[in-house]
Design a protein that fits this description.
Largest sheet: 4 strands, antiparallel
Radius of gyration: 22 Å
Oligomer: single chain
Shape: globular
Number of strands: 26
Number of helices: 6
């Protein structure tokens, strides 16, 4: 870090000249940005200056700039059933982080359960440390089933949006926010402003540095929705945007193009459940309108969820197995001719009882469950932008974390 840059950061915080007694501010910040993320909660208790510095989003940006940020993969996934006595010892290495930032052993037998329905949790894989953990939710509450996980990197926030109420199994408007910048960062959940409409199995994506778009899904009568809305993270408020041309349930959302459009891929209508459409719709914030992209999803019997990964810079990747056959790469434009989407087919490295593909810091990753010990463990594989299609082993996924995720997002901390 340059001295000018360090001084500029230090001036943004009160008493930062005394971060480490006897050291200039730029050297003190150089030291602090190199401390692993797992110790940052304790560091905030040292003094007000450290708490102020570590709680600001610019601290995370500086860690990224100097290559010291750690990448977390956040997964909304079903939790495993309570362990049997024979497997209890294996499970005891898994920890939660409670609201006060302290680690505690999970006792799933004390958690409320709905008969016949799974209990969902938020799992976090630290790519730098190769560790897995569950994140505790507020006491007496449960993460909504099938909620969408989305990250706002610049604001340092993880959002859980919509899904099903664990007791009524009805779609909800709920929004939960976990802060990775600010007071209590990485420890405390808060309620965000609810969506205008209850929905689940909808398209969702963060666009730019402050906005989250949602569209489609279904309502409490399982009707496919056309409606769409946008969340302003800074204002903590939702606004409706024009609806899509047709309802789309179980659709996939992502950012597309350098101008940051919102693409809603495939899905199906109320009367054609399970028959996935081949087209997509793209919302242009500049014109406040939707346009359609034809013949982009060519697998009518297969959901794009857990099969696709993409971002605005590298196009869209579709992960295939022996049942999905198509040309390796295709390119499609929408009817306005503004948006161009490149779709690349990538073969899975192996098969398993459950497969989920996504993105981890720009790389494509796939989690393959059901590999060992009665389907209790899995493996994570990765392919990079440079060596696309050449898979490398990341690690074996420990028991308790290899259930098929529903949604995911990654964030640097």
């Amino acid at each position: 870090m340059s001295k000018k840059k360090a001084v500029a950061i230090a001036k943004a915080f009160q008493n930062c000249h005394d971060l480490i007694p006897g050291l200039p501010s730029e050297l003190a910040i150089e030291c602090l940005v190199r401390v692993p993320y797992q110790f940052q909660s304790a560091m905030k208790s040292v003094c007000r200056s450290w708490r102020s510095l570590l709680s600001d989003s610019s601290f995370i940006r500086e860690r990224r700039r100097c290559g010291k940020a750690e990448l977390l993969l956040c997964l909304v996934q079903p939790l495993t059933p309570p362990p049997t006595p024979a497997s209890k010892a294996v499970e005891e290495s898994q920890t939660f982080v409670d609201e006060e930032g302290e680690k505690k052993l999970e006792d799933e037998s004390q958690q409320p359960r709905v008969s016949g329905t799974p209990r969902f949790g938020l799992s976090v894989y630290n790519a730098a440390m190769s560790t897995w953990n569950h994140v505790a939710f507020p006491e007496q509450q449960q993460i909504p089933l099938f909620c969408e996980c989305v990250v706002i990197q610049d604001a340092g926030k993880i959002l859980l949006i919509g899904g099903w109420d664990p007791e009524t199994l009805q779609p909800v408007k709920d929004v939960y926010v976990l802060e990775f910048a600010g007071e209590g960062s990485g420890r405390r959940w808060r309620r965000g402003a609810p969506m205008n409409e209850s929905r689940s199995f909808f398209a969702c994506a963060s666009i730019g540095s402050t906005k989250v778009y949602v569209a489609g899904g279904h309502d409490d009568q399982k009707n496919a929705l056309r409606s769409a809305e946008v969340y302003d993270v800074e204002k903590d408020e939702w606004s409706m945007i024009p609806p899509m041309t047709e309802g789309r349930d179980e659709c996939q959302g992502f950012a597309v193009g350098t101008d940051l459009g919102f693409c809603v891929l495939s899905g199906y209508g109320t009367e054609s459940q399970g028959r996935f459409q081949s087209d997509a719709e793209i919302y242009d914030p500049a014109t406040n309108s939707w346009s359609k992209m034809e013949d982009i999803w060519r697998f009518p019997d297969t959901s794009p969820r857990g099969r696709t990964a993409g971002d605005c810079s590298s196009g869209l990747r579709c992960f295939t197995d022996g049942e999905l056959q198509s040309e390796r790469k295709s390119e499609t434009k929408d009817d306005s001719r503004k948006w161009n989407l490149e779709l690349e087919m990538i073969q899975f490295p192996m098969t398993g009882s459950s497969i989920f593909a996504g993105s981890l810091g720009g790389d494509a990753v796939v989690m393959i469950g059901g590999r060992t010990e009665s389907e209790g463990k899995g493996v994570m594989m990765k392919t990079t932008e440079k060596d696309i299609g050449k898979w490398s082993h990341v690690q074996d996924i420990p028991s308790g974390f290899s259930t098929l995720p529903f949604s995911h997002a990654s964030i640097y901390v």
